[in-house]
Amino acid sequence: MTFAKIGAAAALLTVFTACSKDTTGGTGGTGPTGTTCTETLINSFNVPACSNRTWSYELETQCWAGEAYVDIFQTGVSSPWEEVGHAMESMELGDDYEVWGLSLGVVDTPGEVTPGSTSLFKCDDEEAGRSGTMTWSFTVYDLDFNLADCVAYGDDPSFYAGCADGNTW
């Protein structure tokens, strides 16, 4: 997991290795009632939201996933902060879908950032994402932990190469 203030060249390297995906989706597996599902894909996601110093993220997959992550990057500033690898938690499992969610508390210093628990991004940055400084990537892995799908949303979805553009999705 990477949490750092980085330069543009290093950011591009991280992005190109993080989101090269198999566009056919990953293998699904067998659901809780014996239903077979064959392709893990992101069906939908909620626009990132922040209230009372807590970020909320949620996505739904077609089939089931082995893991799901949120990455956050300030694409619209000259000296960006990046948080990669916030693991989401499975919240609901159906016969042919899974809902993943994550809440991140807002902290004030880089040393307080804990993957999957806290974020340095302030609630004021939520509006910044809509007006041009933040981009989020949602990534899911299939039950064999192979990269299955990703979608990027915010200022510059193309920053996450290989991910679908969530702004027009």
Treating each run of at least 4 consecutive H or I residues as one helix, how many helices? 2
Shape designation: globular
pLDDT average, as an integer? 80
Helicity, in percent? 10-25%
- What is the structural class? mainly beta
User: Low-confidence parts lasting 5 or more residues at pLDDT below 50?
Assistant: 1-24
Per CATH, the class reads: Mainly Beta
What's the structural domain tally? Answer: 1
Give an overview in words:
The chain has helices at 8-18, 124-131; strands at residues 2-5, 29-30, 36-37, 41-45, 49-51, 54-62, 67-73, 81-87, 89-93, 97-106, 118-119, 135-141, 147-154, 164-165. The protein has one domain: Immunoglobulin-like (Sandwich). The chain has 2 helices and 14 strands, in the order βαββββββββββαβββ. The strands form 3 sheets. Strands 1-8-7-12-13-14 form a 6-stranded mixed sheet. Strands 4, 5, 6, 9, 10 and 11 form a 6-stranded mixed sheet that branches. Strands 2-3 form a two-stranded antiparallel sheet. The longest helix has 11 residues, at 8-18. It has 169 residues and is mainly beta.
List the helices and strands and how they pair.
Elements: E1 2-5, H1 8-18, E2 29-30, E3 36-37, E4 41-45, E5 49-51, E6 54-62, E7 67-73, E8 81-87, E9 89-93, E10 97-106, E11 118-119, H2 124-131, E12 135-141, E13 147-154, E14 164-165
Parallel strand pairs: 10-11, 13-14
Antiparallel strand pairs: 1-8, 2-3, 4-6, 5-6, 6-10, 7-8, 7-12, 9-10, 12-13
